[in-house]
Amino acid sequence: MTSNLVIETRGLTKRYGDAIVAVDDLELRVRRGEVYGFLGPNGAGKTTTLRMLLGLVRPTSGTAAVLGAPPGSPEGLARIGALVEAPAFYPYLSGRDNLRVLAGYAGVPDGRVEAVLDEVRLSDRAADRSSTYSLGMKQRLGVAAALLKDPELLILDEPTNGLDPGGMAEMRAFIRSLGEGGRTVVLSSHLMGEIEQVSDRVGVIRAGSLVAEGTVEELRGQAGLRVRAEPQAEAARLLVALPDVAAVTSVDGVLDVTVDTARAPAINRALVQAGIAVSELYAQKASLEDVFLELTASGDDHR
Amino acid sequence: MTRNVTAELLVLRKRAATWILLGIWTLLGIFFSYIIPYALDPEDATGGVEDFFPESLAGNLIVGFPFFGGVFALMLGVFALGSEFGWGTLKTLFTQRPGRLRVLAAKLIALGIVLVPFVLSLFAAGAVASFVIAQIEDAPANWPSAWLLVRALGAGWLILAAWATLGVLLGVVSRGTSLAIGVGILYALVIEGLLGAITDSVSVLEPITNVFLRANGYSIAAALGASFDSIESNGPGSYNGPFVGSVQALAVLVALIGAFVALTGFLLRRRDLA
Fold it and tell me: What residue ranges do the domains of chain B occupy?
């Protein structure tokens, strides 16, 4: 275990019977201090993976170390805050009492309860039963519970589920701020925008396997230009002959040019000087959504 | 561990079901031990109207523990863990600092503490009822010895604890409350009740019925002064024997508690929490 790695799994696998492989030989590395986006379609194995990392589910094979400890061990759990799937609380207890129960189990002083309630802006409703909370308030209470131990590692599974757009934006900003304090955050989601906005690095999981990993920029791949010009065939011939242009492909009447986007003025000039009419020329990068759809398109998931 | 138990006591203390069960148990206990039999025909009791006087407090009340009290304790035990599966709160607790077995230990200790008011409330209400009856009958209020009372309170708690741990086990096995309570009551009525009833004629069953909660609970009750008549005519909780020695009965109850707790711990530790 390298000390820079907060989470490291080797061949982590979870099978349910012979037919269902929820997580398949997963190799995951999460570095200290980063916000790691764990992206995958519904049923890809994200929650099962997180449950294994928390010791809630036993792997069928493979190993995992979380903060240098086996999953579910008291020494590891003492430094981890988690919100797995829907936040679960005693419905008849107030938000404050729910946190007091968890503080009692986590061994943190009761004073932390008020601090985290304040942090997630729930202090004014803390005395109300948690069953009367809106979905957004329950999510915030879940995050408060995860923050109780002032953890080194936060594991948040779909924390914006059920939130309205305002609530989602607020939660993302909150997660980003949590990551800025040097804390490691693992954020699981099936929402590309969410992952794109808050993550330092992203792991894409499909059918239980990690199919891509890197920064958002790395996953998006090399930037390029899109050019609409007439006559198109002549424009393509000219472009492919230019220095620094790696490739030119025609898609729906538009030329995709693989080249450094800083070369746009020179390319425009070359086309115009050759008598080619340029009606559009703009920089284009693949969106994370494109990458995600491409990576997960063939997934036939049952998780 | 102290803070774990304190947290768990908060969960049990603020739960309405705890107080509802306590209230019903106390009311039913007094109604069926004192108010109804005294109102109907006090001379019908084995020892006549004296059975309702304070001196018979221990024997008169303890007879309600092995079955009726047991069912209440079983429900309390089921709620203590079975509900956590439905709410998903066990998952939240298991991602806190202590391991699964420490969480279970905290829950069991808290449950054991909550059983204390169940025993005390019935005895307190019984003391009031017996005192009032003695006043009505113009009889002296002679109280049982403190030692007998302490033994009766302890025995009552142990009997309830045995049923409560069975409830905890059923709650964990079924990962919920409804099935666990159904199976628990079915066990109390059908398995223990029917098998116990035919043990007299089918002696081969005796080794089995001797480890039943009902057999050992009533054996302790009998040792504390409960009349055999009241045990044999205890409605759906009636028991005709055979009775075992009180030391053996205590040992069996402690062993059953140990077995239920061990099995619960094994399941809770081994199972995935999906």
Answer: 2-270
